[in-house]
């Protein structure tokens, strides 16, 4: 018995380690992919167009897919993820992909409703996977496959991750149901603006306009931040603001029944049988 326990311990520890390693690596890849124009803003190389994302999309997509698969395998090995939770991930991602095809006023849709609520109920790591998989499936459904797709997947994954962190905080604080809905509504508002601000980082390096908003090598970190702020406000802040209001209202109106349903599913997926000790 002692030998068997030792074997299980030696197997479990690497699995937990690989799960965290892959999760951290996923986020680092996304950060570098988005922020590299700022990291190298001090360099000046007029003949080099490295910042235009001309060749990095396949590399980013390959790294994203491989690390997501490693995270799933590691979490299933160490018990953080089971077959039922994995099935729930697939169902939620499929519904979110379908909802993204339904266009509402101001370009809004119900896609973020399921990503945010799913991440809130199932936690940060599953929320990250839900956001990435939902965007991937919706790109297939809508024909939106292109060099921008892996960057959209990262941005969507971070929205699911943030919702998962919000859920952990709400559980730790024992927030009542009305406060949870208010927190989700506020997060939905912020998430829409955050997604727009993040995803525009993909377009900005090769978007040509006036000197106050366009990217150029050698402009420096501070000037790059100033120009990107101007670019975002000028191009999409108003549009994202309308989506943010829609997210907040939708979560406030229909978030509670959907949250209750998802929490019931979560409880069913995570139950465990415990042996009763006699005497």
Topology:
Elements: H1 2-39, H2 56-77, H3 83-99, H4 111-122, H5 124-142, H6 149-173, H7 177-203, H8 221-235, H9 237-269
Helix pairs in contact: 1-2, 1-6, 2-6, 3-4, 3-5, 4-5, 4-6, 4-7, 4-9, 5-6, 6-7, 7-9
Oligomer category: single chain
**Order of helix and strand elements from N to C terminus:** HHHHHHHHH
Distance between the termini: 23 Å
The CATH architecture of the domain at 82-269 can be given as: Orthogonal Bundle
Number of strands: 0
What are the segments in which pLDDT stays under 50 over at least 5 consecutive residues?
1-16, 271-279
| Number of discrete helical segments | 9
Approximately how much helix is present in the residues?
over 70%
What would your notes on this structure say?
This protein has 279 residues and is mostly helical. It has a domain at 82-269: Arp2/3 complex 21 kDa subunit ARPC3 (Orthogonal Bundle). Helices cover 75% and strands 0% of the residues. It is built from nine helices and no strands. α4 (111-122) crosses α6, α4 crosses α7 (177-203) and α7 (177-203) packs across α9 (237-269). The longest helix has 38 residues, at 2-39. The protein starts with a helix and ends in a 10-residue tail after the last helix.
Features:
about 280 residues; mainly alpha; Arp2/3 complex 21 kDa subunit ARPC3; 9 helices; about 75% helix; about 0% strand; disordered N terminus
Sum this structure up briefly:
The protein is an all-alpha fold and 279 residues long. The chain contains nine helices and no strands.
């Amino acid at each position: 018995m002692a030998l068997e326990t030792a074997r299980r311990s030696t197997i479990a520890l690497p699995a937990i380690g690989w799960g965290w390693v892959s999760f951290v690596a996923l986020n680092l890849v996304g950060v570098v992919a988005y922020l590299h124009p700022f990291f190298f803003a001090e360099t000046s190389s007029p003949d080099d167009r490295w910042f235009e994302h001309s060749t990095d999309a396949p590399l980013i997509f390959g790294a994203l897919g491989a690390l997501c698969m490693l995270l799933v395998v590691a979490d299933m090995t160490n018990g953080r993820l089971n077959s039922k939770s994995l099935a729930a991930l697939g169902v939620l991602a499929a519904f979110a992909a379908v909802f993204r095809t339904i266009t509402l006023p101001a370009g809004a849709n119900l896609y973020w409703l399921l990503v945010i609520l799913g991440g809130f109920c199932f936690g940060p790591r599953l929320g990250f996977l839900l956001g990435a998989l939902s965007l991937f499936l919706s790109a297939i459904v809508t024909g939106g496959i292109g060099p921008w797709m892996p960057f959209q997947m990262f941005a969507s994954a971070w929205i699911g991750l943030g919702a998962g962190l919000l859920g952990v905080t709400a559980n730790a604080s024992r927030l009542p149901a009305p406060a949870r809905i208010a927190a989700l509504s506020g997060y939905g508002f912020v998430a829409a603006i955050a997604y727009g601000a993040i995803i525009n980082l993909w377009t900005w390096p090769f978007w040509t306009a006036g000197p106050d908003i366009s990217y150029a090598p050698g402009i420096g970190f501070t000037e790059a931040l100033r120009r990107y702020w101007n670019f975002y406000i000028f191009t999409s802040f108003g549009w994202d603001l309308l989506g943010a209001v829609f997210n907040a209202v939708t979560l406030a109106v229909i978030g509670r029944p959907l949250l209750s349903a998802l929490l019931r599913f979560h409880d069913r997926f995570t139950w465990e049988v415990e042996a009763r000790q006699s005497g």
